[in-house]
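Module 6 notes. Inverse folding takes a fixed backbone as the condition and produces residue identities as the prediction. Think of it as a translation problem where the source language is geometry and the target language is the twenty amino acids. Below is one complete input and output pair. Work through it position by position during the lab.
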């Protein structure tokens, strides 16, 4: 089984660039998780025969949003955090922008595991959303995944908007303390690892030079001056079932590339 995650930075833009359908034809994911779709289902013309589609769009038009396409119909699908769970946390930042209304999470339940896709809030250049992330979003997302684990193992994937270690970005020193590489964001990711979730890519590949996002500036992608901020993590019970984990840097159409795992 192949599970892919891709921040498309606008599904309509990726389709217009004629990159999405060739990707699907070549890779044929069993489950595809998208982030930053920036669209509602009715706004696009997309034909995916053989797939069940699930969309969680932001209240704000053309912003954020996630989707899951799956060959096998899930047992259940949950958009966002369940309300009784969400009531334990605060999702609005100091400007009262509510991250719970931004279509950032979808959960699909299958027979043997859950798949959760997430588009983690960006801390912003001025770090205005850093407190929201560190104090509320990251703890809530981790608590949610651990709650799901009480029933069956979890696979979560998406754009987590953080480089975990210095090996996960091309220029760590000048970016220390900036969005995506603050101590707080890195700690939020480390908390997931310490809770037992496995960064699947690091099971197979060590070292730097492996990135999933590149700036549009200064020819960064061609020079591979990037960041690894897109991940697939699994519950420890699934660790042995992960037979491959890859970054597909040759897939164009977005400033992010897809990442994937293959399960036995």
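Target side of the pair, the amino acids:
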């Amino acid at each position: 089984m192949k599970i892919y995650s891709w921040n498309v930075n606008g599904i309509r833009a990726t389709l217009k660039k004629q990159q999405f359908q060739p990707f699907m034809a070549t890779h044929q994911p069993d489950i595809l998780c998208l982030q930053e779709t920036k669209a509602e289902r009715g706004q696009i013309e997309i034909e995916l025969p053989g797939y069940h589609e699930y969309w969680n769009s932001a209240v704000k038009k053309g912003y954020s949003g996630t989707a899951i396409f799956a060959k096998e119909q899930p047992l259940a699908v949950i958009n966002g955090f369940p309300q009784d769970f969400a009531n334990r946390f605060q999702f609005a930042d100091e400007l009262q922008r509510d991250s719970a209304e931004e279509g950032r999470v979808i959960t699909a339940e299958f027979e043997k595991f859950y798949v959760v896709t997430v588009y983690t809030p960006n801390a912003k250049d001025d770090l205005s959303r850093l407190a929201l992330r560190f104090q509320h979003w990251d703890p809530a997302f981790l608590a949610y995944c651990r709650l799901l684990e009480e029933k069956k193992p979890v696979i979560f994937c998406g754009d987590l908007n953080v480089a975990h270690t210095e090996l996960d970005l091309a220029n760590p020193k000048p970016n220390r303390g900036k969005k995506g590489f603050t101590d707080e964001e890195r700690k939020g990711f480390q908390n997931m690892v310490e809770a037992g979730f496995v960064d699947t890519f690091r099971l197979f590949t060590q070292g730097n030079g492996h990135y999933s996002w590149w700036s549009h500036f200064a020819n960064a992608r061609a020079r591979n001056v990037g960041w690894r901020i897109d991940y697939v993590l699994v519950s420890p019970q699934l660790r042995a079932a992960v037979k491959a984990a890859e970054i597909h840097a040759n897939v164009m159409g977005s400033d992010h590339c897809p990442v994937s795992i293959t399960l036995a």
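Reference fact for the lab report: The chain has a mean pLDDT of 94.
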